Amino acid sequence: MEMKLSNCLPTQKWCGGAPFYRQVNVRFYPLPSQRLLPASGKMRQRRSFSLQNKRQQTKKINIERPPNVDLQSSDDADSNTENMSKQSLSSSNQEISIKENVDTLTEAESSDEISYLSVDSNEEGQPPSVHLQDLIGMIRNAEKNIHLLNEARVRALEDLQKILGEKEDLHGEINILELKLAETDARLRVAAQEKMHVELLEDQLEKLKNELSSSRGSEENVLHVNNSVPLSHTDSVNSLSEEFDSLKKENIILKQDLQALKSELSNVKDTDERILMLEKERSVLESSLSELESKLAASQEDVLELSALKSECKNLYEKVEHLQELLAKATKQADQAISVLQQNQELRKKVDRLEKSLEEASMYKLSSEKLQQNNELMQQKIKLLDERLQRSDEEIQSYVQLYQDSVKEFQDTLDNLKDDSKKRALDEPVNDMPLEFWSRLLLMIDGWSMEKKISKDDAKLLRELVWKRDGRICDAYMSCKEKNEREIIAAFLRFTSSPTRPGLHIIHIAAEMAPVAKVGGLGDVVTGLGKALQKKGHLVEIVLPKYDCMQYESIIDMKALDVVVESYFDGRLYKNKIWTGTVEGLPVYFIEPQHPGKFFCRGQLYGEHDDFKRFSYFSRVALELLLHAEKRPDIIHCHDWQTAFVAPLYWDLYVPKGLDSARICFTCHNFEYQGTAPASELTSCGLDAYHLNRPDRMQDNSANDRINSVKGAIVFSNIVTTVSPTYAQEVRTAQGGKGLHATINSHSKKFAGILNGIDTDAWNPASDNFLKVQYSASDIEGKLENKEALRRLLGLSSSEIRQPLVGCITRLVPQKGVHLIRHAIYRTLELGGQFVLLGSSPVPHIQREFEDIGNRFQNHEHARLVLKYDEALSHLIYAASDMLIIPSIFEPCGLTQMIAMRYGSIPIARKTGGLNDSVFDVDDDTIPVQFRNGFTFVTADEQGFNNALERAFNYYMNDAETWKEFVQKDMSMDFSWDSSASQYEELYEKAVLRARTASRS
Fold first, then answer.
1. DSSP-assigned beta bridge partners for residue 866
2. Nearest CA to 913 among 760, 748, 722?
3. Could you tell me if 425 and 471 are in contact, meaning their C-beta atoms sit under 8 angstroms apart?
4. d(CA 132, CA 71)
5. Which residues, 6 or more positions from 289, have their beta carbon under 8 angstroms from its beta carbon?
6. pTM to 2 decimal places
7. Backbone torsions φ then ψ of 508, nearest 5 degrees
């Protein structure tokens, strides 16, 4: 703090005996603590006290004034002093330093000394009138100097008091911050990621305390200066001389004090800069405090959610008890079924005995000669035993007749069985042909139909023959597959009799399909669910965009059809090229738009600025393809926001055109992504934005001028599913539903959660070609060899065979709990294990953070981070890991834990979403023993994760045999798509049945 005080200090110049005044600029700075020494303060008080005593004595002395000299009283002098002070304050245009003021006082002292000498040199002992007047003026000027200096001191003290007051206020605010930080620290102990930051703040506060404690005593050293110095007349020259000496000495002392004051004021500037720094630090602390308070509020919301989850857990426990009761009933039914099976086995034994009897009969026929010989012998014996044989003749004849009758009956039964087997051979499907064969036939027939080579009715009948895997059409194709297309068509048209319908016709419209176009779990679901439904006898077809970045090597018999499908978009019609091929045995249609925007030639599936337009275009073309091919599916199944447009497009535009046989099923794999856009963009694909932008249709729940494609699919679909039962409950809450919870709850009757499965053919350690050694649940020794292979590949230490290896395969995004993954690396090493991470992040700062961690562990013998996607390495990590962590903040389903158990890697997972439905803690007594398959924790913090990880390490290190049994049990668990597909099948059939009932009524 800098203050300017412009004072006019009188400086005595002997120019005609009249003094003149020079302007002085004085800068005052806040005094630092402990700068005013007590000794100097006492000295000043003694000087002020002695000066007052001398002035009181001078009041009693009367000086004879010559008539020509007009002396002023002390009151006049005081008034002159005030006038001079006011005049000096108003004259602020000229400034000189304190040093000039000190020089002025020195000049005054020398002038006073000259006056004093002139008085002593008067021979008559009386001072001349001129010298006496000058002496009195000089004294008055000195007193005025003292008065002005006192005023300057008073102002400096006032400024100092203001600064000290501001320091006290700052200290009070800092104390408040300390209290708030202490409270926040107590509440956020579980927030381990903020621990380092809080400790840094506490260190800064300690520094502030030390600096402030050193400045508290500055208030105790403030000097009080007396501002009034009375002036009185002197009686004699001797008393004036003594007083002049004292004034001279005091001027010298004042000079020293001014020097000390100057040095002290220079130190004040440093204190001012320190205060500015403290204020900056205070602002930083306030911002940090606000951030901590916001995090505290977020943690409180988490606590509320936990309470809600507890209540939901209670409901789940009740459901589990109910399921246990159902299990008991099912067990009884199974016992009954076993008894029935035993009876069937007894019947089978009887049939076996009859078959043996038939063989004996044939033996008798073949050995007729031996029978004749035996008859001769029998005749001889009859002669000998005629009486005995006569008695038994009738009995023998009866036995022979019974035997002949039984042989005849058995022969008739055998003939009937042969006839039945021939009939069944004609009617039953051929199951020894691969799925790719039937998909290829189906695509071939569809191609003929779209190219107008066969009629629509014939195409429908041939598709149904392929659908039921009729052996006749298989034989016809095999007999003429080397012939030309016309002959194959002629052979197929011979089998256009009406077949029986074996199952449902299901068409999936999706943006992903593994392995040709996969980003996340959606691609695995489309392929896995499609294959499972196909195995159950349903006709399953897939419609995909034709991306330029697909894995074309995974597509079998891909070819372009000689047909063009036109679709509407942005006010005009665009042509689309249609490709066909089989993927994992499933027939797939690929749509290639002939649009100038090159919608699917971008080098990636998602992440484009016009994704909303790209996929709304694809959704309409997919329906246009079904209409053009005259398909009559029972179910159209669309997935996530990219194909959510199918539901409103189907009912608003394509049902009126005749594509009205299907029920719509929509599956949302993650409610984090909802496909919102301005309502005007909905018109591009031909939908009526004005008609649909309503709260009960597609209007986004948080913005009236935007539409939400996922909401539209929920409203317009007949079936709505998500990927696990727990996630289905979570999305009904405000936080889990991401704004759609009200819509979900209003359509709860058609909403269900079905746990995803995994493709057990693709994820099978007994046949996985990516592994060093294949193994199975009955023989898990291959895990150790794969563990060693992974260690050699990544350069990890192999010195301890039993050292546990912890794996993590994930996308590094906040949803996956990256703060716990980071903590797991260090905690695993502290517990004596090894850690391997495979994954990358689309978030730049997260990717950089883990790259820094990876660089630190680049040459570490027990940790390695591979920050990319590597399909082959992921298989090897699953096989080599003893444990695999999945610390997700939320997880709709998750396939990682299922794949890990399939490969004998024990999951360590947080209880959320699909993880809660598939991983059950080994120490949870409320779960039946046969279902306990991992280690779980509830709270997404380091403490909860540490508890699960340490328990897993204890099991692994202390009981090798129990751990082996644990691994074998996990590998034997069924996470295939079979049960999940059955649940979808049930939903499909109910929806189709309701539709058929409604149409008949």
1. 838
2. 722
3. yes
4. 10
5. 177, 180, 181, 184
6. 0.56
7. -95, 125
Q: Which two tokens stand for residue 576?
A: 């689309």
Residue 503 · residue 951 · CB < 8 Å: no
Q: Give Rg (Cα) of the chain.
A: 51
Beta-bridge mates of residue 676: 708
Please choose, from the candidates 913, 855, 915, the residue with its C-alpha nearest in 3D space to the C-alpha of residue 885. 915
Would you call 503 helix, strand, or coil by DSSP?
coil
The pLDDT value recorded for residue 449 is: 83
What is d(CA 490, CA 163) in angstroms, rounded to the nearest whole number? 105
Return the closest-CA partner of residue 149 out of 309, 234, 256, 43: 256
Q: Exposure pattern of 792-822 as b/e (b: 16+ CB <10 Å)?
A: eebebeeeeeebbbbbbbbbbbeebbbbbbb
The answer to whether 835 touches 877, Cβ cutoff 8 Å, is: no
Q: What 3-state class would DSSP assign to 697?
A: coil
Contact 626, 598 (CB under 8 A): no
Residue whose C-alpha is closest to residue 241's, from 125, 150, 144, 71: 125
CA distance readout (Å), 543 to 376, 380, 445: 82, 86, 17
Report helix, strand or coil for 230.
coil
Q: How far is CA 81 from CA 8, 21, 258, in A?
A: 11, 12, 21
Question: What is the separation, in whole angstroms, between the first and last Cα of the chain?
Answer: 92
With beta carbons less than 8 A apart as the criterion, state whether 952 and 935 touch: yes
Q: Coil, helix or strand for 961? A: helix
Which H or E run contains 263? Answer: helix 237-366
**Pairing assessment for the beta strands 805-809 and 883-886 based on DSSP bridges:** parallel
Residue 773 to residue 879: CA distance in whole angstroms = 9
**CA 213 to chain centroid:** 45
Report the alpha-carbon distance of residue 41 to residue 750 in Å, rounded: 90
Complete DSSP assignment for 49-77? HHHHHHHHHHTT------TT--PPPHHHH
- CA–CA separation, 1001 and 998 (whole Å): 5
CB distance 229 to 147 below 8 Å: yes
Return the residue matching tokens 């049939």: 351
| Whole-number Cα distances in Å, 726 to 284, 647, 738, 894, 987 | 42, 25, 16, 12, 19
Contact status, residue 3 vs residue 159, Cβ threshold 8 Å: yes
| pLDDT score recorded for residue 399 | 59
Provide the pLDDT for residue 6.
Answer: 39
Residue 934 near residue 922, CB atoms below 8 Å: yes
What is the predicted pLDDT for the residue at 36? 38
Helix (H, G, I), strand (E, B) or coil at 894: coil
Rounded CA gap, 312 and 835, in Å? 35
The dihedral through the CA atoms of 938, 942, 945, 946 has a sign that is negative
Q: Which pair of tokens denotes residue 784?
A: 């150790």
Alpha helices, DSSP H only, in 633-776? Answer: 646-649, 689-692, 709-716, 725-730, 734-737, 741-746
| pLDDT mean values, one per 10 residues, the chain (1001 residues) | 40 39 41 40 45 45 38 42 42 41 44 40 44 78 82 82 82 75 64 63 73 57 40 52 72 74 66 74 74 72 70 73 74 72 71 69 58 66 63 61 63 61 51 76 84 79 78 75 76 62 87 92 93 92 96 94 94 96 95 95 92 97 95 95 97 94 96 94 94 95 94 97 95 93 95 94 93 94 95 94 95 94 96 96 94 94 94 95 96 94 97 95 93 95 96 94 94 92 93 82 63
Peptide bond into 765 cis (omega under 30): no
- Report the pLDDT value the prediction gives residue 551, as an integer from 0 to 100: 93
Round to whole Å and give the CA distance between 244 and 142: 10
Give the Å distances, CA to CA, from 228 to 53, 61, 141, 233, 909.
13, 20, 14, 17, 84
Q: Is 513 helix (H, G, I), strand (E, B) or coil?
A: strand
Task: Report pLDDT for 491.
Answer: 75
Q: E strands of 701-853, at which residues? A: 706-708, 719-722, 751-753, 805-809, 834-838
Q: What residue type is 275 in one-letter code? A: I
